[in-house]
Amino acid sequence: EIVLSQSPGTLSLSPGERATLSCRAGQKVDSDFVAWYQQTPGQAPRLLIYGASSRATDTPDRFTGSGSGTDFTLTISRLEPEDFAVYFCQQYGSSPGTFGQGTKVEIK
Amino acid sequence: QVQLVQSGAEVKKPGSSVNISCKASGGTFSTSAFSWVRQAPGQGLEWMGGIVPFFGTPIYAQKFQGRVTIIADESTTTTYMELTNLKSDDTAVYYCVRPNSGYDGWFDPWGQGTQVTVSS
Questions:
Q1: Chain A interface includes B5 (CB < 8 A)
Q2: pLDDT digit string (tens) for B58-67?
Q3: Which residues in chain B (32-91) have CB-CB distances under 8 A to chain A?
């Protein structure tokens, strides 16, 4: 199965700043089948991005997914208070789908 | 808009079994896929298996083969996940999810989660 490594583990930023989250796969992800999820404390993950760069319904346009092959990035252009959360990447190009361990975006 | 509502928290003894339900509303139940994902403390997210009610035959992640059973009841639009021979490291939040296609595509929506605690 494909191992996904997310970095950094924790990102300390202030509201209004730009966040760049990385997800690296141990092997090429077919068809760039990568999704990103946001999880706030006590809540289920919520889909943000699929197909590496397509925003899910209701995903604000300050969230941008990019990348291909083995390297994928989630960028949050200007952090809003509700964006401080944990973010997971997932690959679903090879079965079984697998997740990264998460990046926590915390308030500096 | 599909919504998934799961059954409540469970506390189980090692060696016992747990059965969690997930009721779907909205969408077309029989031709949708439903999967189960768990989140254990410090272990990240794991896909456990899935089912398409129309086809009836579930598939399971190799790690859980022999211990997990997923079924779907079209009459109540509910899926169930049973995990047997529970161990302490099965303590986790279990989520019902809908894959966009197949059994493990991207997942949307997610149920609210069911906390399962395994403790003697």
A1: no
A2: 999 999 999 9
A3: 44-47, 61-62
Write down the pLDDT at residue A55. Answer: 98
Q: Which amino acid is at B95?
A: Y
Q: Is A88 on the interface with B (CB under 8 A)?
A: yes
At B13-56, the pLDDT tens digits run 999 999 999 999 998 888 889 999 999 987 789 999 999 988 88
Nearest Cβ partner for B45 among A46, A88, A95: A88
What distance in Å separates the CA atoms of residue A20 and residue B95, rounded to the nearest whole number? 28
B34 contacts: CB under 8 Å, gap ≥ 6: B4, B22, B24, B50, B51, B52, B53, B70, B72, B79, B96, B97, B98, B99
Q: Provide the 10 A C-beta neighbour count for residue A34.
A: 29
pLDDT of residue B97: 97
Task: Assess contact for A66 and A75: CB atoms under 8 A.
Answer: yes
How far apart CA A14 and CA A29 sit, in angstroms, is 32
Residue A27 tokens, joined: 């092997």
B103·A98 Cβ contact <8 A? no
